[in-house]
Amino acid sequence: MYSILLNDRVIVKDENAHNLYNKRYYGNLTDSGLELSFIEALFLLTKNKIEIYDDDKLITKEDLTDIIRQKHIFSHYLVYKDLRIRGYIIKTGFKYGSDFRIYERGHAPGDGHSNFLVKILSEEQEIKVRDFSSYVRVAHGVRKTLLLAVVDDEYDITYYDIEWTKP
Fold first, then answer.
1. I want to staple 88 with a disulfide (CB 3.0 to 4.6 A). Which of 83, 104, 108, 121 is the partner?
2. Where along the chain is the active site annotated (predicted)?
C-alpha cells in the first residue's frame, strides 16, 4: 500500500487503507488517509504490508529504524512488535500516562475497554517511587492492569504484572 512520510507520521494513501484499520486497528483514520505512528509503520513495513515514500525516495526498513532510533523510541518498537505478534491490539496510552494500552484478542477499540496499560523502561533506567506509585494508581483507578515492560541491553523484554493491593 502506497504511503508517504509526513513530519512525525506515515500516511497510508491507498484506497484499501481502511482494511488495516478495520481488521487489525492500525493507526487512525483521517480525511488525509490512515495515519500511522513510526512504530506502527515500521511493523507494517517489516511485514511488507506498506511501502513508504519521502517525495520520490523509497524509505527502507533500515531508514525508518534509524529514524526511530534517533527519536529514542526503539525500545517502544520492540515492545509493540512483541505484543502485536502475541495477538494484542495496541493503541497509545498517553491519556493514562502510559506508553500503550492493549486489548486482548477478540476485543477492539470501540467494542469495550482495554485491559492493560503498558509502561516501558530500559533495564538501567531509574524510576522514582512516587512515579511508579502514580502509574499503578492510575491503572487501578481506570480498572486496568499495569504491565511494566523492561527492555535489557540485548533487547530482551521482561513483563511485570503490577497490581494495586490494600494492606
1. 83
2. 103, 113, 144
